Amino acid sequence: MLLPSESALKADPHAVAGSTDYDIVIVGSGISGAIIAKQAAEAGKRVLVLEAGTGVNRSLVGYDDLLTTFYSAATKDNQSPFPMNANAAIPRSPQLRKLQAGETDSSTYIVQSGPYVSDTTYTRIFGGTTMHWEAKTPRMLRSDFKSRTIYGQGLDWPLSFEEVEEDYRLAEREIGVSANVEDQTYLGQTFPGDYVFPMRGLPLSYLDQQVNNGIDGTSVDLYGRTYPLKVRPYPQGRNGIPNPAYDGGAGYRPIGAVDTHQVEEGGRCQGNTNCVPLCPVQARYHSGKTLAKAFQMNGKSGQPLVDLLSQAVASKVVIDPDSGKVSALEVKVYKDAASPEHETITVKGKVFVLAAGAIETARLMLSSGLRSTSGLVGRNLMDHAYLLNWALMPQICGAMRGTSSTGGIVDLRDGPFREKQAAFAIDIHNDGWGWATGAPTSDLLELVDDRNLYGADLRQGLIDRISRQLLLAVMLEVLPVESNRITVDPQFTDALGNMRPVLSFTVPEYTMRGAAYARQFSRTVFARLGAQDHTSYDPRDFGYVAYEGQGYAIRGGNHLAGTHIMGTMKTNSVVDKNQRSWDHENLYLVGGGSMPTIGTANVTLTLAAMCFRSGRDILKYLH
Amino acid sequence: MHTHSSIRTLDELKEFLHEAMRLEHATIPPYLTALYSIKPGVNRDAAQILRVIVVEEMLHLTIAANVLNAIGGTPDLRRPDFVVSYPAYLPDGETDFEVGIQAFGREALATFLKIERPAIRPENLKAGNPLIQRRTAPHKSMLGSHPSNNEMHFYSIGEFYMAIVCSLKEFEAKAQREGGTIFTGDISRQVTSEYYYSGGGELLPVFNLKTALDALELIIEQGEGDGGGIYDGDEHELAHYYRFDELVKGRYYIKGDKPGHPTGPQLQVDWDGAYPIKPNLKVAEIPDGSELRAATIAFNHRYGDFLKLLTLAYNGQPSLLLEAVPIMFEFRNMMLELIRNPLPGHPGLNGSPTYEIGRDVAAQEVASQAEAVA
């Protein structure tokens, strides 16, 4: 129960370093690494998972510690549950500041080069960024896989939707997606035969329904085509009601949590609004659930097949100059998050999988001097650009109730307009203006400090203000651009002496054209709702971007991709369609970094699907 | 087995299943109160163990309702005596013991261990009557007693359930000989894992003898362990008794351990890390007109609403269990309010939920007044 599966937790660095029986060494315990580890263990392979974080949240007590940290944090940003750890630092948005063109800020973990500063984040702890993700799991559209051919924009994937479809279903099973097929068939999306999602769709929030009441049946025109508007539910990686029709009537059993004991398995979604950064009842999927199952698997000798070595930061990929294969990984193992003291061990295996996220995987490759034949490692960095629009509804709409986001306006995810401007999907945020303004704390301070309210007037003032808040978060498509990139620089290192990522990013014009339209679109929606627009973008904002005489504050979406892009040959890409490195036959770079485009789908489901494919390829390679 | 004779008719069996529901429910208020009495930041191991067990008791309650529904019964949690008056008494072999509402601590834990301890009948009593004349004062709530004779209780909860199991088998065999079945209940009344999961076991529909016996076996195993082993039948889960024993011993059990000798990692228990609630408090002991009294009555009222909702859910509307979720949050908050506030006139002691449901008419009146004011 509370007791962790001891052996999996307590891999000893020296035993690991001396071990010669690992079939697969995986860097990172996020969803990519977890899926591949579990798949490999199911095939009886020996696996080592290296995790840079402390790994304490591997147990229920450790997970609950993160919650306590979050509850007591003054600033509840999306990394607030995760304690400072200079040995495995993570980007934290409250630390960012505005930069001028040519200015570099190395005061934060990601070195930012101005003028555009990205607040994109990822989480370097056990479970990776699935410990803080929002768990929306839309599939990419058919057209997203060939946007070059169809719209003359971006890149085509070396895979078609049809080739990925079955793996989407595996990913939906692993994550335990809650959705109804009938809600997800918009824009020509199809599902095979009698497919149903593992769990029934989660209901739209009251706020969603109020928004839908105002726009359902209306439409917008764009480049001569009409798009109907409607609030549709998002598929979500959080526990709802298992669908008895799943798997041909076998049903679906929600399983898994950081501990595998039945009662500590993920609970049912209770509508807590802090899905991001951390679900209090593990209703939201995180890769600790997948790993918990992998840790339970034993080999013929009865020993666990999967070892986890925490506090282990991969620092160098070592290549055998003769074969071009990876011969080992150098790993810095620290003893205490508060001290840079560490020892460097060498880890050997037959296959190496870098699953550390699009930025860390690129960083590790680049700091190992591995830019790839194409020179594309670190380039084509993508992340959805978010444009926030906020307004007050005319009536009380119950903001702050329900999970972070349950529904949105998604009918402009595709259309011929994509020849000219970015597609987008809009999330309706159930947590009010929090993301844009810091509500509800900011409202409290304003009502107390500026309007001198107290007692009953203050209570009424808060109800009146907060429960009417509507935030439309527009998630815009961003295409691959080689100059948007991660680099490393020996002058910027972390506590362990590893080079830190240096980020250079310019929001592409294609995206900004979409942003300008999305702003108008949001105003139209507000007008139809009778909502009072309160949106304003401050030129001092670190993400401020001017476009055609207007300014917009662009936020990162934490949907990182592109840095080890997938393609058809070694000259145009870093990995093949199985995410295997073109240059090093026993090296797989997996995760969002392989994605050639990201369309308007949150990346996790797609990258999870790709990892099932890679897992099979790895097993084939090993045989 | 000599218990079959205790239950003579199908109607009596339904009453036994009602008693099973009452029994399973009766452990929930003591466990919940102990859980919520724990101060924030301490005793997290204890809190987890209590949470796990209380969730399983809720599962057992629902399983009992499923079995009752399967044989055409109508579960009713609104019966005036459904919620026992605490302290109540549970059988413990030849005698019985008190189960009360109290804060987490050594005493509470001693009681919990008794609740979950398998009562093994000694050799010389193997042929004895399953029913035992009670020794407790007659006006006290007795659990595990014969529904139609409150003066007789079973040797143990295990034997109480064994009586149910035997008569299910016997009645079904008889019905089948006559070309019928006792499992005549509408299957749509079954609460299934769509509505209840992550609760320490599968909630499967009961529609025949096999599913009924499987369901009851889960209750028996989780409660008392399987024949004294520390893990349940599939070697997956520690029986409740040994979970509490972990707190006593300050160590976790791991697979292969012998009962009473856990060898897993240590755990910490802060025996003073709970709010000092007054045990088995009654509304009548709280000063008239105090805020605490109004809050206590309001809690009882809300808990009563919850039982009404469960009754509807167990009577053909299982989806109502979804609506029960926010109510559980609500009454948790109400309980915390009671537990963390001082009890007027009792220096050093705090308030407590009293669970006087449907038995305190005066309280209900005050509650409606309180509602009218609100």
Structure, described:
- The complex is a heterodimer of chains A (623) and B (374).
- With 623 residues, chain A is α+β, with helices and mostly antiparallel strands.
- Chain A has a single domain, classed as FAD/NAD(P)-binding domain, CATH 3.50.50.60.
- Chain A has helices at residues 6-9, 13-18, 31-42, 60-72, 147-151, 161-175, 206-215, 246-249, 287-295, 358-367, 434-437, 441-450, 455-466, 509-529, 603-622; strands at 24-27, 47-50, 104-105, 111-113, 219-222, 225-228, 232-233, 306-309, 312-319, 326-334, 342-347, 351-354, 385-392, 405-409, 424-429, 469-476, 485-487, 502-504, 532-533, 544-547, 550-556, 587-589.
- In chain A, strands 7, 13, 14, 15, 16, 19, 20 and 21 form an eight-stranded antiparallel β-sheet that branches.
- In chain A, a hairpin with a 2-residue loop joins β5 (219-222) and β6 (225-228).
- In chain A, 56% of the residues are buried.
- The model of chain A is unreliable at 1-8 (pLDDT under 50).
- In chain B, a hairpin with a 2-residue loop joins β1 and β2 (95-99).
- The longest helix of chain B has 27 residues, at 44-70.
- Chain B is 45% helix and 6% strand.
- With 374 residues, chain B is mainly alpha-helical.
- Chain B is built from ten helices and five strands; from the N terminus they run αααββαβββαααααα.
- Chain B has a three-stranded antiparallel β-sheet with strand order 3-5-4. Chain B has a two-stranded antiparallel sheet with strand order 1-2.
- Chain B is globular.
- In chain B, α8 (291-313) crosses α10 (361-373).
- Chain B has helices at residues 10-26, 28-37, 44-70, 106-116, 157-177, 209-224, 240-249, 291-313, 320-339, 361-373, and strands spanning 88-92, 95-99, 131-133, 145-146, 149-154.
How is this structure best summarized?
The complex is a heterodimer of chains A (623) and B (374). By secondary structure, chain A is of the alpha+beta class.
Essential attributes:
heterodimer, A: 623 residues, FAD/NAD(P)-binding domain, eight-stranded antiparallel sheet, five-stranded parallel sheet, 15 helices, 17% strand, globular, B: 2 domains, three-stranded antiparallel sheet, 45% helix
